[in-house]
Amino acid sequence: MDSILITGNGPLKGTTHASGAKNAALPILASSLLAEGTHTFRNVPALADVSTMLKVLTTMGAKSERLSGKKSSICEIEVGKKVTPEAPYELVKTMRASVLVLGPLVARWGRARVSMPGGCAIGARPIDQHLKGLAKLGAEIELHEGYVEARAKRLKGGTVAFDLITVTGTENVMMAASLAKGRTIIENAAREPEVEELARVLNKMGARISGAGTDVITIDGVEGLKPVDHAIIADRIEAGTLLCAAAITGGDVLVQHAVPEHLEAVLHKLREIGCKVTVEHDGIRLVGPARVSPADIKTREHPGFPTDMQAQLMAVLATASGTSVITENIFENRFMHVAELRRLGADITAEGNTAVVRGQAKLSGAPVMATDLRASASLVLAGLKAEGKTLVGRVYHLDRGYERLEKKLKALGANIRRVKG
Ligand code: EPU
């Protein structure tokens, strides 16, 4: 198992870039099941989760090929006349987002058999809203031997009012409704940029979707969709993480391709803690202060502060000149990084969904263990600031969602390397 070894060595400086967005790529790849033919996706990040989604699709009979250039990563997916509409437990257990094939399968192929995802490190994460939404469109749903089995001759439009805001739930229903008969209205829809991006792709395929990016999405079902050629938006969470690397080290970094409109709540907080954030021609530049100020953070659905940036900001605030309070409102168990950050000298106490972070002038290196994707990013950030050596274990969590993070940080001057193990 690989680890990452970091020796804290002061401010990061230079220009880097955000790769394609993981959480946009996953539903977009799944959406290829909606149309027969060859799809071309560009700016597809080279991540373990993307490989898993491609495996899900090829297991069903689709063909995929990655044509990686120096600056772009292209992925072609060919969907033939037949698929085996099943996502097995072995794949779904490694990545919950595999459940994104459910909507496309039942809409296009009339049948889906997808393993129920279990809980995961950050919470129980049920999919009841996905199932409720598909049932509202007329899918017959049964749970059998750990699998969701969904069937429908043709889905019919309807009003889906989610009980809570769910990103992949909104995406699943939006994909399914694209081929349903008649109009579907999704109320209380997720407004994340990745939902908007999926709607953009579906509309390119011939779908008729309006309102994505707001909390009411209207989808007029069409008879068929065609393959698409699309370049995926930049990853706002990776961009935010790279900006935090500048913030925690008091550095000066330009993150190219980062979209300011996707990161408003994060940029607002970074400014509040004393960073100078400017929007440049093709990206966002952050100049960090010698020591950041404290700030309180409450995670919310977009456009609120993203839960996927909570762990990284916690690492930054662990070095602030005062006390911050962080409240996690999306997932019930997303403080696993607290105990590991404490090993680096952070003074953090967590109770329920609230963490009190008392900023320390110094952190000191130690071996730590990644517990989930964003937790590992937060440990890497803390390692950049800590004196001495920090060894972050279980790096496979990081590889699920960051494309060569250590290479990007090294290019900015960090003393960081991967240790093969
Ligand atoms: N929820 C339910 N029932 C449902 C669906 C969700 O109770 O049917 C609950 C969840 O348990 C959670 C909350 O609703 O407490 C929000 O979950 P949501 O469904 O929005 O999360 P998701 O769609 O499974 C996506 C991202 C996550 C990100 C969340 C929140 C993808 C592939 N994943 O997950 O990304 O944290 O939205 O923004 O888009 C990550 O990249 O590290 C990551 C975890």
Summary, kept brief:
The chain is an alpha/beta fold and 421 residues long. The protein has helices at residues 22-31, 48-59, 89-92, 102-109, 128-136, 167-178, 193-205, 236-249, 264-272, 310-317, 337-343, 373-385, 396-401, 405-411, and strands at 3-7, 13-17, 37-42, 63-68, 73-79, 86-87, 111-115, 140-144, 147-151, 159-161, 183-187, 208-210, 216-220, 229-231, 252-256, 276-280, 283-287, 297-298, 323-327, 347-351, 354-358, 367-369, 389-393, 415-419. The chain has 14 helices and 24 strands.
Notes on the structure:
- With about 425 residues, the protein is an alpha/beta fold.
- Helices cover about 30% and strands about 25% of the residues.
- It is built from 14 helices and 24 strands.
- The protein has helices at about 20-30, 50-60, 90, 100-110, 130-135, 165-180, 195-205, 235-250, 265-270, 310-315, 335-345, 375-385, 395-400, 405-410, and strands at about 5, 15, 35-40, 65-70, 75-80, 85, 110-115, 140-145, 145-150, 160, 185, 210, 215-220, 230, 250-255, 275-280, 285, 295-300, 325, 345-350, 355-360, 365-370, 390-395, 415-420.
- The protein has a 4-stranded mixed beta sheet, with helices on one face. Strands 2-15-17-16 form a 4-stranded mixed beta sheet.
- A hairpin with a 2-residue loop joins β8 (about 140-145) and β9 (about 145-150).
- α1 (about 20-30) runs parallel beside α2 (about 50-60), α8 (about 235-250) packs parallel to α10 (about 310-315) and α8 packs parallel to α12 (about 375-385).
- The longest helix is centred in the middle third of the chain and has 14 residues, at about 235-250.
- The mean pLDDT is about 95.
- Uridine-diphosphate-2(N-acetylglucosaminyl) butyric acid binds next to α1, α5, α6 and α12.
- Uridine-diphosphate-2(N-acetylglucosaminyl) butyric acid binds near residues 126 and 374.
